[in-house]
Amino acid sequence: MGELIRVEHLKKYFNTPGGKLHAVDDVSFVINEGDTLGVVGESGCGKSTLGRTVLKLIEPTDGKIFYKGRDITDITEKENKQLRKKMQIIFQDPYSSLNPRKTVSELIADPLKAFHMLDKAGRAQKVAQLMDVVGLSQRFANSYPHELDGGRRQRIGVARALSLDPEFIVCDEPVSALDVSIQAQILNLLQDLQRDRGLTYIFVTHDLSVVRHISTDILVMYIGAMVEKCGAKDLFKAPLHPYTKGLLSAIPVPNIDHVREKVKLQGELTSPIEPKDECRFIARCPYATEACKQHMPEFQEVAPNHFVACHNVKTINNM
Ligand SMILES: Nc1ncnc2c1ncn2[C@@H]1O[C@H](COP(=O)(O)OP(=O)(O)OP(=O)(O)O)[C@@H](O)[C@H]1O
Ligand SMILES: [Mg+2]
What we know:
Layout: E1 3-16, E2 19-32, E3 36-40, H1 47-54, E4 62-67, E5 70-71, H2 77-86, E6 87-90, H3 94-97, H4 104-114, H5 120-133, H6 150-162, E7 168-172, H7 180-197, E8 200-205, H8 208-211, E9 217-222, E10 225-231, H9 232-237, H10 242-249, H11 290-294, E11 300-303, E12 306-308, H12 313-316
Parallel strand pairs: 3-8, 3-9, 6-7, 7-8
Antiparallel strand pairs: 1-2, 1-4, 4-5, 9-10, 10-12, 11-12
The structure holds adenosine-5'-triphosphate and magnesium ion (MG).
């Protein structure tokens, strides 16, 4: 399968009264067609900003975004709108992203209307079909979002994202607001859709256990920067960055294949505003040395398809 998304040295800085906030700071990756890149990290590390910038919902400060090899960083508004059909987003909170005064069928028809796709009868047919695809019974067609439970509301979000037959979907914490039992249903739905339609995903979550089975590769972010990226299996089997080890240590034991040591995440998060040229994890890292203060570690390939930004990665992991 070919390359669908390529991101090179992507940056998104926000101007704040305290200075430039580095929400996304030099992020690069490639996602092949049909694959899923899991993006994990704590609240505020830049996951949503990354997803939205890749979709061109926010303008990047610097760096490049390619779609099927085509540079889409500086395309026109009109081209952007065409691309919008191919690239969609599913939000965490279907409650706030759905207009409470519209019925389920109206909500699912919205994107089709916005793009002037199909006539009224055609749209009705497509909406009924989409409801089937996402497992929403037709008896909810005239219901309002508040009349449905969280799982069904998220199915509306999925149907809306699918309505324009996209190729790429950013799933931004799509199950984080749901009960654990419902989470599995929505995850299964997203996986089935990916298989049936050859979809490519970025799957954003703060919960590593959620992306374990759905991801091809996993990218771990810390204060806007990439700290580790590798195949999903490798991340759980052999996490190399102290921060990833810490995230994994927080998952209950039956979910982990093998963790060599427990790393407890403590201490203050460094501010993302005008961060110093040092390792951003320094304040919380049990392995920090003098070198970590000298400059920010490079993101390097330390094993095949396994990238880590840590000055001491070799000593910590006996490599
Ligand atoms: N429009 C904005 N203006 C200024 N700062 C912003 C803006 N949007 C996001 N930020 C800041 O950028 C950083 C990254 O935010 P982002 O929402 O991408 O994080 P996140 O990883 O998705 O967090 P969460 O897990 O809470 O959703 C945060 O420090 C946030 O406060
Ligand atoms: Mg977010």
